[in-house]
Structure formats: structure tokens, C-alpha cells
Amino acid sequence: MARAKKTQRLGDVVDTTLKRIDVSGRRHGARVVGVWSQVVGPEIAGHTQGFALRDDRQMVVFVDSPSWANELSLMAGDLVFRLNEHLGEDTVKTLRFTVSRRVAEERSWEATLSSSQEEYLPDEVTPERLSEVERMQVEHVASVVTDPELRELAERVMTKDLELKKGARKAASGKGSADNDTSTPHEG
């Protein structure tokens, strides 16, 4: 007599296997820490970092200041509820907020990077048309390319690059149009 095969979902098989292997429940800790920022939102995540889930189901969260630790302690019940709801099981029992200088330094560094990236955006450059001599030089340089389509593409790329460089030079010098510039396209 043939044995009837029982079809199981892969997710169920994996969960069952992980439960047998991970009797202490360490995999839950990684899941909780991994979803912390997503569950609490960007404002709270900007001042915290999920660290670990202890054996007693207490989640340790590093905080950048005592005031945030105090504020989040008042919100702990709601945060535990939101975490467990997101995870779909009763994984976290309590939260412990610990002030960490490292988190404060990381958040300060991230804020500095963010503001400096905004300040140092590249300047808008208005391309300057190439002179007749410059266009002829581009054609000459591209003439070594035997494939006509590739040669045309090379000419367009070189022209665009040179026009941007010429525009940047003009903006940097504060001068008017440089159409009479006969410098070689290799400068820039």
C-alpha cells in the first residue's frame, strides 16, 4: 500500500525546523532588532538603536540621551504592543532603554553627513556651445573609430563633455560667452 504524502508549506517546515534547532529563541532577537526602526518610525529611530532581545524577552534599546530614554519609557507599553503586532507573535515582554554615547555619536555623525551633502551639491552648469574649431577637433579624435554608429556616439559624448567643461570654466571665471575660444578639447 502506497503512503499518502502530506503537503506542507515551506514556511511551516522552516519554522518547525528552526524551533527545534533554536530552543533558546535567539532567532526572535534578530527579528526584533531588525524591525525596530521600521516599527517605531523615523523620529524615534533617529535617536535609538535596537540592540538585543534577552532570554526573559526583554528588548534592550540603546538611546542617544537620557531625555529620550525617559520619553520612550513612558511609551514602552505601546511600543511593545506595536512590535508584537508587527512580528505576529508575543515575542517582546518589556523594553529597557539604555543611554549610549556611541548611538549619540553615530546620530550626530549622520546628521553632519546629511547636512554637508545638502551644502555640497554640485553646481548647475550651463553647457557652452563648441566653436567650429572645437567641433572639428572632436570629429578628428572620433575619426579613428571605424564603426559609424559608435563614432557618432563618441562624438556626441565628447561634445557633451566638452560643452559642460566649457560652461564650468565660464561660470568659474565669471566671463561672458567663450565662443571665440580656440583651445583644444583636451584641456579642462
Task: Please describe what this structure looks like.
- With 188 residues, this protein is mainly alpha-helical.
- The chain folds into 2 domains: 25-119, 2-Layer Sandwich (GMP Synthetase, Chain A, domain 3); 123-188.
- 57% of the residues lie in helices and 10% in strands.
- It contains 8 helices and 3 strands.
- It has helices spanning 10-21, 26-40, 42-45, 66-74, 76-87, 101-119, 132-142, 148-173, and strands at residues 48-53, 58-63, 94-99.
- Strands 1-2-3 form a 3-stranded mixed sheet.
- Strand 1 (48-53) and strand 2 form a beta hairpin.
- Helix 2 crosses helix 5 and helix 7 (132-142) packs antiparallel against helix 8 (148-173).
- The longest helix is centred in the C-terminal third of the chain and has 26 residues, at 148-173.
- The model is unreliable at 176-188 (pLDDT under 50).
Question: What's this, in brief?
Answer:
With 188 residues, this protein is mainly alpha-helical.
Descriptive key words:
8 helices; 3-stranded mixed β-sheet; 2 domains; 3 strands; 10% strand; GMP Synthetase, Chain A, domain 3; disordered C terminus; mainly alpha; elongated; 188 residues
- The total of helices stands at 8
CATH topology of the largest domain: GMP Synthetase, Chain A, domain 3
Looking at the chains present, what oligomeric state does this protein adopt?
single chain
CATH 4th-level superfamily of the largest domain: DnaA, N-terminal domain
Counting DSSP E segments of at least 2 residues, the number of strands comes to 3
Strand content: 5-15%
Counted up, domains total 2
What's the CATH architecture name of the largest domain?
2-Layer Sandwich
N-to-C span: 84 Å
Averaged pLDDT, please? 82
Structural class based on helices, strands and sheet pairing: mainly alpha
What's the main sheet like?
Answer: 3 strands, mixed
Helix content: 55-70%
Which stretches of 5+ consecutive residues score pLDDT under 50? Answer: 176-188
Shape: elongated
